[in-house]
UniProtKB/TrEMBL annotation:
Protein name as annotated: UDP-N-acetylglucosamine--N-acetylmuramyl-(pentapeptide) pyrophosphoryl-undecaprenol N-acetylglucosamine transferase
Pfam family, one: Glyco_transf_28
Molecular function per GO: undecaprenyldiphospho-muramoylpentapeptide beta-N-acetylglucosaminyltransferase activity
Domain of life: Bacteria
UniProt function note: Cell wall formation. Catalyzes the transfer of a GlcNAc subunit on undecaprenyl-pyrophosphoryl-MurNAc-pentapeptide (lipid intermediate I) to form undecaprenyl-pyrophosphoryl-MurNAc-(pentapeptide)GlcNAc (lipid intermediate II).
Membrane topology: Peripheral membrane protein
Gene that encodes the chain: murG
Keywords assigned by UniProt, alphabetized: Cell cycle, Cell division, Cell membrane, Cell shape, Cell wall biogenesis/degradation, Glycosyltransferase, Membrane, Peptidoglycan synthesis, Transferase
Family: Belongs to the glycosyltransferase 28 family. MurG subfamily.
A GO BP annotation: regulation of cell shape
Annotated source species: Companilactobacillus ginsenosidimutans
Main localization category: membrane
Catalytic reaction equation(s): Mur2Ac(oyl-L-Ala-gamma-D-Glu-L-Lys-D-Ala-D-Ala)-di-trans,octa-cis-undecaprenyl diphosphate + UDP-N-acetyl-alpha-D-glucosamine = beta-D-GlcNAc-(1->4)-Mur2Ac(oyl-L-Ala-gamma-D-Glu-L-Lys-D-Ala-D-Ala)-di-trans,octa-cis-undecaprenyl diphosphate + UDP + H(+)
EC number: 2.4.1.227
Subcellular location: Cell membrane
Amino acid sequence: MTKLRIIVSGGGTGGHIYPAMALIKRLKERDMIEDVLYVGTENGLESKIVTREGIAFKTIKISGFKRKLTLENIKVVNMFLSSIGKSKKIIREFKPDIVVGTGGYVSSAIVYAAHALKIPTVIHEQNTIAGVTNKFLGHFVDKIAIAFHQAEDQFSEKKKIVFTGNPRAQEAAGIKANDRLKDFNLDSAKSTVLIFGGSRGAEPINRAVIGALPEFSEADFQVLFVTGRVHYDGVIKRIEQKYLDQPNISIQPYIDNMPEILPDLKLIVGRSGATSIAEITALGIPAIFIPSPYVTHDHQTINAREISANGAAKIMPEADLTSAKLFEGISDILTNENVENEMSDASKEIGVPDASDKLIAVLTDLIKK
């Protein structure tokens, strides 16, 4: 079996980092790694996540372009050129068989440097709307792996594109029901909806849930409401004690290892980031997406539309969100078994539970060639 010396790079947001980590994890499970190096920035989120997992980590100094014409961009260009030099040094010392970039400006230098040194290169685009870094790198890399078919329109190099799905999907697909809902005083045997607004929480979603608590308290299903740590104390102060004591409602600031609870859920309400979509479609969980209107190019709305077009999810724009609409949308799914099953089947149809293996096949094929 082929064993790889691989450099992986991605940063800025968890959406770039977690797919990279899932790929590394799967390579290790298949005993396909001779050595692995992660290249990131010193102050980026990746520095905490990667080092915590005991993976070798090196840094380069680089930043992204400003969206407006500014003298600051001259410094950015100089920093990029300097980081290419350091990246080439890292590559020559590590001697990788292949270099993979998963997005974020940190991956631009190391992937471009690998191309210049004639090392096989792959980028992975998680969203329907490609990031600036991946659009730039698309001209130089050997393969462009995508997680949404719609992303094909973002790249001119059509022959390089291969659909793999998001590696986080395979990681989620391997999780079995584990009765973890009992940690939140809920019954895993009962129909449960998870409502959350991303890792930090979202005030508009929290506000809608608080207003719907009287209806939720009388519902036949359970509600696991995750507020986000920064919002939790403020949310609790706004809720009457009788709703805090309801046996079918659990309010939490944050859930560590959230994917572990996914197999015990019947419905998810939340943002439509690429990682969330990969995980829930791998498990065939229906969803109500409330896309964040604050992300670049409104890509969460585009992500959500691709999933909802298949019948696997419903979209509730944040601007239209009310407590009444939230409860009605959830109730319409969880009190109608046919609707729930149809959405679940549609979700499974577009899920990619072997996404990491598909991406690994792209890597090994490039190395062989």
